[in-house]
Design a protein that fits this description.
This protein is α+β, with helices and mostly antiparallel strands. The chain has a single domain, classed as B-lactam Antibiotic, Isopenicillin N Synthase, Chain (Jelly Rolls, Sandwich), CATH 2.60.120. Helix content is 29%, strand content 20%. It contains eight helices and 14 strands. A hairpin with a 5-residue loop joins strand 8 and strand 9. The radius of gyration is 19 Å and the shape is globular.
């Protein structure tokens, strides 16, 4: 295990400061995204009470009877919504299925009733309750995307405009406590090693821990929960967009011995560009000596290909 640690960036100067302060924060984000593809973000605009309430909603959902959760089960990569049972996902195809359950919400559909099939009838208020938190996360994500654009010497709304249809995936995650005597299969994790598929991810962790991030030297670094922070990481499409300037870094969730018999919860907001957005190398990320490495691809083409491999 590497002894290096992920950087912690205070976002408050970006939220309340002048252009000079915003550029200073953007430079910190650029350095972290180049080196790690991950960083902690403090003072990001949500209160501890708002985050705690979201975790309470998540726990209530996962406490529903299995039969009720399966009534709103995930169906296909095109919708990418609904409940995903334990061992249904294999993020790392070289290992056994993941020891987690999840629930996906397509954020673009939250303002309509077209997706009621994906919401539990025994918990009718759930959609309304979770929508407020999703909207708050969208505001945070747009501000982070603004900082990313500034760091790359692009117009401040460069990435925000490319995400303005809010075709993101909001995901609740539960890693059940393992029973006494449980022995995981060889190389089995709560979540296998993988990279995220989209542009950026906002990750909220509880206090249990287990997330690990790949380091440049090939080891793994513990992304230990830090109160009052979230973790931001860049995904595959952002790496392609920036010609490998930003790193889409493998990460996993282990089950350390001291937390093997504890439930773990996390909340991830996977941000993706608009489905039909063509992702091609940004001009400030290429040159004669560093030409574009990736062919153009639409968001939907890339996302569906990755999701079909996962399930």
């Amino acid at each position: 295990m590497s002894t290096h640690s992920l950087p912690v960036i205070d976002f408050s100067p970006f939220l309340t400061g002048d252009a000079i302060s915003q550029h200073a924060v953007a430079e910190q984000i650029l350095a972290a995204s180049k080196e790690w593809g991950f960083f902690y973000l403090s003072n990001f605009g949500l209160t501890e009470e708002q985050v705690a309430q979201a975790f309470a909603l998540s726990a209530r959902f996962f406490a529903l009877p299995e039969a009720e959760k399966l009534k709103v089960a995930w169906q296909n990569a095109q919708s990418n919504q609904g409940y995903i049972a334990v061992k249904r996902e294999t993020l790392d195809p070289s290992t056994a299925p993941d020891l987690k359950e999840a629930y996906n919400i397509a954020t673009a559909s939250l303002g309509s009733d077209d997706d009621q099939v994906y919401y539990p009838k025994v918990y009718p208020e759930f959609k309304h309750q979770i929508t407020d938190f999703v909207n708050q996360c969208t505001q945070v994500a747009d501000l982070v995307l603004k900082a990313f654009a500034i760091s790359l010497k692009q117009p401040a709304d460069f990435f925000v405009e490319a995400h303005d249809k809010c075709q993101h995936t909001f995901r609740l995650l539960h890693y059940p406590a393992m029973p006494t005597g449980f022995k995981p299969e060889d190389s089995q994790n709560r979540a296998g090693a993988h990279t995220d598929y989209g542009s950026i991810t906002l990750l909220f962790q509880d206090s249990v821990g287990g997330l690990e991030v790949k380091s440049r030297n090939g080891g793994w670094v513990k992304a230990t929960p830090i109160p009052g922070t979230i973790i931001i990481n860049t995904g595959d499409l952002m790496q392609q967009w920036t010609n490998d300037v930003f790193l889409s870094n493998p990460h996993r969730v282990r089950q350390p011995e001291d937390s093997l018999h504890k439930d773990r919860y996390s909340i991830a907001y996977f941000c993706s560009p608009n489905n039909e957005k063509v992702i091609r190398c940004i001009d400030t990320c290429q040159s004669e000596t560093q030409p574009a490495k990736y062919p153009p691809v639409t968001t939907s083409e890339y996302m569906i290909s990755r999701l079909n491999r996962t399930y």
